[in-house]
Design brief:
CATH architecture of the largest domain: 3-Layer(aba) Sandwich
Distance between the termini: 39 Å
Number of helices: 16
CATH topology of the largest domain: Rossmann fold
Number of domains: 3
Bound molecules: 1,3-dihydroxyacetonephosphate, iron/sulfur cluster
Length: 327
């Protein structure tokens, strides 16, 4: 066992390979698995048992027989894992890894909206708190949002939140035109520069533009393909092109390079020329993963009643996704 005290700073001197070895041993001895989102640091993706988008991670959380799930993602994702696996211990390397988009719609705000529109069906993006999920009729992710909305009867009116860009994208792609869309957005996807995209397209006319639906409409109309993180990664492998402009958090490029190192992946920058990073996803690191597994904390806990209420709309989404073969 390594001689590690609790201060994360001390890890700088410790050999990464040793930490990875310790993490693997802890996973085995504690029957733990690591689920990681594509936006976390590549080192964590490499030590994870499963790396995926929000929908795939939810399915994994539901089906695992591990005793402990270490969730390397943002808070709402770990909450979803806890809701789907309430008897398991769900840990996060850093509990402060939140999602500003999820926080942009509170349970109180949704309650008020529901009161104003009592005949509307609430479709909530998975990027929401457990409290908001508990007030929703169905959940969707970026990967299944259009199909979920299309699965609703034609006369059903919809409240969609909290991401307005995904909302307007869904509205344009589905048969549902009667939608009240909440005014929330993801700062990471909102910050992409339209001018820089224009310049890059001019410089590399052969490049394929792949965008996440959380991007602003100005970016989406210039994209060749729009989809979830896993779809974006898949397209870089399947399409017969050598160069891609990536309009989502650049953590996805880690998997792209692993799957096909010979292609070129250009992260779309922000207006200031810097990469648009999700600072919350980057709060996790290998040292925190090690400590969380060793100390079995910080743990994600939720009230039993809240779990039961939030479970129903997630279950509905998973059932429809299964029926449609969207896993
Ligand atoms: P995906 O479900 O496409 O992985 O997206 C999650 C997310 O938070 C995007 O910002
Ligand atoms: Fe939330 Fe945006 Fe980070 Fe996704 S990229 S987790 S929506 S802040």
């Amino acid at each position: 066992m390594m001689n590690i005290n609790k201060s994360v700073d001390n890890f700088n001197e410790i050999d990464k390979t040793q930490i990875i070895k310790e993490i693997k041993q802890l996973k085995k001895s504690k029957n733990a698995i690591i689920l990681a989102h594509f936006y976390v640091d590549g080192d964590i993706q490499d030590v994870a048992d499963f790396v995926g988008d929000s929908l795939a991670l939810a399915f994994q959380a539901q089906k695992t027989d591990a005793d402990i799930i270490l969730f390397a993602g943002v808070h709402f994702m770990a909450e979803t894992a806890k809701i789907l696996s309430p008897d398991k211990k769900v840990l996060m390397p850093d509990l402060q890894a939140g999602c500003p988009l999820a926080d942009s719609l509170t349970a109180m705000q949704l309650l008020e909206l529901k009161k104003k529109h009592p005949d509307h069906f609430v479709v909530s993006y998975v990027n929401t708190t457990a409290e908001v999920k508990a007030l929703s009729d169905i959940i969707c992710t970026s990967s299944n949002a259009v199909d979920i909305v299309n699965s609703l009867p034609e006369d059903v009116k919809v409240i969609f939140g909290p991401d307005k860009n995904l909302g307007y994208y869904v509205k344009s792609m589905s048969h549902k035109k009667d939608m009240i869309i909440w005014d929330g957005a993801c700062p990471v996807h909102l910050n992409f520069s339209y001018e820089k995209l224009h310049d890059l397209k001019k410089k590399y006319p052969d490049a394929i533009v792949l965008a996440h639906p959380e991007c602003d409409k100005k970016i989406l109309v210039k994209a060749d393909y729009i989809g979830s993180t896993s779809k974006i990664i898949k397209w870089t492998q399947e399409l017969d092109a050598q160069r891609f402009i990536i309009a989502t958090e650049p953590g996805v490029i880690h998997q792209m390079k692993k799957l096909n190192p010979n292609k070129e992946y250009i992260p779309l920058p922000r207006k200031d020329g810097k990469e648009s990073i999700c600072v919350n996803m980057k709060k996790h690191n290998l040292e925190k993963v090690y400590l969380a597994l060793k100390n079995e904390q910080p743990e994600v806990t939720l009230d039993k009643e809240l779990i039961e209420k939030a479970y129903r709309p997630i279950r509905r989404m998973l059932d429809i996704s299964e029926q449609l073969g969207l896993k």
